[in-house]
Amino acid sequence: MAMITTVQQHILQEQREQKEASGTFSWLLSGITLATKMVEAKIRAGGLTGMYGAAGAENVQGEQQQKLDVYANEALLHCLGMRDSVAALVSEEDEEPVRINRDPDGGKYIIVFDPLDGSSNIDVNVNVGTIFSVLRRAPGELEASILRPGYQQVAAGYVVYGPSTVLVYTTGNGVHGFTLDNSIGAYVLSAERMRMPEQGTYYSVNEAHAAEWPGAYRAYVDRLRAGGLGREYSSRYIGSLVADFHRTLLKGGVFLYPPTTKQPKGKLRLLYEANPLAMIAEQAGGMATDGAGRVLDIVPEGIHQRTSFCVGSRVEMEALAEGVRA
Ligand code: P6P
Are 66 and 115 in contact (CB under 8 A)? Predict the structure, then answer.
């Protein structure tokens, strides 16, 4: 009988190959996966647990916090908060980093996360996700260890909660997918060394904002519609970044959140949305830019900094670069 490979076993194998540190990292990952299983159980129960609806407070972004946002954030803080290997946790839901290791210079890793992305979709039963990024804590000021370009991430991943719950992660050695098997409560390897197709047939963008985009983006989408890349495209936009990204990773194509007049720096967050997904995209053979340059090269100035975000297959992304650079 073919034995299963759980995500913990997979990361241990990875660490043996990569001569990466001790099992510290796999221990961290188990904290993240435990929290996501807690979140998944609440999502699966839907409105039955009274977890739908707004929590009645605003987060640092001034957005209405959903009850499940708060729960997911608390689950991650709880599951990662007892691990001395964690220097600090950075969450979309918290203004400041949450220090974990009591020694100011202690803790080997910083974990940055969006505990529940797309939460406005929860009440209508649409996929939502958790996104995480792992940085190594360097000596000196904590903030300097957090505000580093995305190419310095040690690992990145997400969980997309949907018809099945899928965890996708990379430690810089390929992208691997796991499906949550609720009968044993474990994420089981379901896709090893995932590759993004060279070109797809979907483009994914909120066209309601088209009049606000820089002209080059309108011209680019018109070019896709006109078959300018040699294929007929269809539009898919779920409005949950993790779901739109996951489809793009599997099917190829391009996802765009361009700058708009209202948000000239873009809407999506660099540290805990764009960077982790950009690392995964590149590890799978795709590309990720802010329209002009590589997302992973951006040097952050603030932990909640926003960016425009374009990610997808090589063919579509090179065509975008031509258009936007022109
Ligand atoms: P818009 C969800 O609120 C989110 O943060 C991402 O998950 C999603 O990609 C984006 O915002 C959708 O934004 O402006 O198209 O509704």
Answer: no
